[in-house]
């Protein structure tokens, strides 16, 4: 990995470089995505079946688009008991963590007859998108479905692309059943987002769509936002390790590569105050790449978006971490908890040398669907909140309104909204 001196010019160029990976910069695909969305909206199932055969080489129709109980049972027979046990352990951790996020309705009653409050209601029906193809992501199945279940969503519709044989990966199916998906449909890509947003003869429209996907899925979610709600528009994966001379270079190198293996657009950055650590981490990454199965992808990722930044001070390193606002941030310093208090922008923060990023991906409990491309400055991880909506409750007695009615009328008149003022006034006309 290349080692660079951290200064304002380096930081500016790095931030500009990272932003090139944003889905906003893939406009050449938007027309194709829009065509798919419009076709599904107009032709429903017919378009879905056609695109599934075109992109996934699978013959799907109304008779087999829904995953059956028999298929789920078959999937359980294909998953090792040891892996099933691990999925259940992870599921328990994720449920426990998200249960603490739950919000409830509240009401505040006063002696004058004023009642104010907030009514919290779960969304009725949500759609969860799970990528397919060559990769298998049972962890993403859990991370999407569990917070929806905790929130109290009644219908959780999962879509995922089938293989050419028309079947869904058995591990994905088992994870969906364990997490509590209501139904699973065999459809992927931008056409799956269209189905969830508009509904077809076979699949009902949802209120919100969550889940990661490729650039076509990301652009489709962006296009349907407003017609339905979405969680976020995910960009390529990224990790930033903030470290000083106390860090273990082998651990740091391994953690950087854990994200670089996702794809060629993944970003892996080390910001450190130690030149010795920087040099050792660079050497360790070279050695690891020789033995890892996705070494070619990792190398391209590091060539494109891998950086080791050498900072003059820990404060400068922290400022840079806050500017980058990474999806995953590891803090491996002498006093990591103090450093953590100075971090404002990060999707997930991992503290200490035994809290490596994959711990969050698979097992610890916090959600691994996180803001990317600097959006951690204003977005949060997927949570129970994403599956709840809130309604304000307002109730005044005549006595309570009488005390303030002139204030409200004057406020309305200041905005020249006389009908607003009159709505209050008529209640006290003699």
Q: What's the Cα radius of gyration?
A: 25 Å
**Averaged pLDDT, please?**
95
User: Do you know the CATH architecture of the largest domain?
Assistant: 3-Layer(aba) Sandwich
Largest sheet: 6 strands, parallel
The CATH class of the largest domain turns out to be: Alpha Beta
Q: Structural class, from secondary structure content?
A: alpha/beta
How widely separated are the two ends?
82 Å
- Note the beta-strand portion: 15-25%
As for the number of domains, it is 3
Strand order of the largest sheet: 1-11-10-9-12-13
Could you estimate the helical fraction of the residues in percent? Answer: 40-55%
Count of β-strands? 14
CATH-assigned homologous superfamily of the largest domain: Nitrogenase molybdenum iron protein domain
């Amino acid at each position: 990995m290349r080692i660079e001196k951290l200064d304002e010019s380096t930081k500016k160029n790095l931030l500009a470089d990272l932003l090139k990976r944003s889905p906003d910069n893939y406009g050449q695909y938007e027309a194709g995505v829009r065509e798919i969305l419009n076709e599904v909206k107009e032709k429903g199932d017919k378009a879905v079946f056609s695109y599934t055969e075109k992109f996934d080489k699978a013959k799907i129709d109304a008779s087999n688009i829904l995953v059956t109980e028999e298929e789920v049972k078959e999937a359980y027979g294909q998953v090792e008991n040891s892996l099933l046990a691990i999925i259940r352990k992870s599921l328990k951790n994720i449920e426990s963590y998200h249960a603490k996020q739950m919000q409830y309705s509240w009401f505040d009653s006063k002696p004058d007859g004023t009642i104010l409050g907030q009514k919290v209601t779960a969304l009725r029906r949500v759609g969860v998108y799970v990528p397919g193809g060559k990769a298998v992501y049972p962890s993403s199945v859990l991370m999407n479905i569990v917070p929806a279940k905790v929130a109290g969503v009644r219908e959780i519709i999962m879509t995922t692309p089938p293989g050419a044989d028309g079947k869904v990966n058995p591990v994905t199916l088992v994870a969906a059943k364990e997490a509590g998906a209501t139904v699973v449909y065999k459809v992927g890509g931008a056409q799956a987002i269209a189905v969830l947003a508009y509904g077809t003869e076979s699949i009902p429209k949802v209120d919100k769509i969550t889940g990661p996907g490729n650039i076509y899925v990301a652009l489709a979610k962006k296009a349907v936002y407003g017609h339905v709600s979405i969680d976020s528009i995910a960009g390529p994966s990224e990790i930033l390790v903030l470290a000083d001379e106390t860090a273990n270079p082998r651990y740091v190198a391994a953690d950087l590569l854990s994200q670089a293996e996702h794809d060629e657009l993944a970003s892996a950055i080390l910001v450190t105050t130690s030149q010795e650590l920087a040099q050792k981490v660079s050497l360790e990454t070279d050695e690891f790449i020789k033995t890892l199965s996705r070494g070619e992808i990792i190398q391209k990722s590091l060539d494109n978006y891998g950086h080791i930044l050498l900072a003059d001070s820990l404060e400068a390193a922290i400022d840079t971490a806050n500017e980058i606002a990474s999806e995953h941030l590891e803090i491996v310093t002498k006093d990591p908890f103090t450093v953590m208090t100075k971090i404002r922008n990060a999707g997930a923060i991992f503290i200490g040398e035994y809290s490596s990023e994959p711990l969050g991906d698979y097992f610890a409990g916090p959600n691994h669907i996180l803001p990317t491309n600097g959006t951690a400055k204003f977005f949060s991880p997927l949570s129970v909140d994403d599956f709840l909506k809130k309604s304000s409750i307002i109730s005044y007695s005549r006595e309570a309104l009488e005390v303030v009615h002139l204030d409200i009328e004057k406020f309305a008149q200041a905005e020249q909204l006389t009908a607003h003022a009159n709505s209050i006034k008529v209640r006290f006309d003699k």
